[in-house]
Amino acid sequence: MVMIDLPILKVLQKSDVARRMVRWEVELSEFDVQYEPRGPIKDQVYADFMVELFSANAHQEEANFRWVLSVDGSSNQQGSRAGVILEGPNGLLIEQALRFAFKANNNQSEYEALNAGMLLGKDMGAQSLLAKSDSLLVIGQVIEEYQAKDPQIVAYLGYVQILKGSFVVFELMHVPR
């Protein structure tokens, strides 16, 4: 029994397939092969993958590794979006694109991107995180150089401060657009 999501059975049953496929069809036809859809991947498979990815030896090496988070948020007439890129050890690269189902201004989108990235870093077990953003206002408010007055921005800022406590080392850096 072959567990596969690809339509291989349909391809093998077509009469107009290439010679190589016909040869494979002849070779496989002597066996009683059944094709079944794979079905959903269970949470346990994902959990096992994460355990394998972050084994005890790798976890010790990661303790000294500085994860790099790049975030950007934007808002326009068509909606609000954010992008998150998290770089981890051994070339691990996680990218997220977020589209918000609510109206947000540019600063709120920047905070949403930062919060999403910090949560991702926390979930991945990062101890040291360097976050990069192009928003001078957000960076200035997080490092307490600027004051936040808007109640929504104050709430975003408070959540960032809570998330900062999840990391042994957290640094926020401005990158030009």
Task: Give an overview in words.
- The protein is built from 7 helices and 7 strands.
- By secondary structure, it is of the alpha/beta class.
- It folds into 2 domains: 2-36, no CATH class; 56-174, 2-Layer Sandwich (Nucleotidyltransferase, domain 5), CATH 3.30.420.10.
- The strands form 2 sheets. Strands 5-4-3-6-7 form a 5-stranded mixed sheet, with helices on one face.
- The longest helix is centred in the middle third of the chain and has 18 residues, at 106-123.
- The protein is elongated.
Task: Please summarize what this structure is.
The protein contains seven helices and seven strands. The chain has 177 residues and is an alpha/beta fold.
Distinct helical segment count = 7
Order of helices and strands: EHHEHHEEEHEHHE
Shape: elongated
The termini sit apart by: 53 Å
Number of strands: 7
Low-pLDDT regions: none
Q: CATH topology of the largest domain, anyone?
A: Nucleotidyltransferase, domain 5
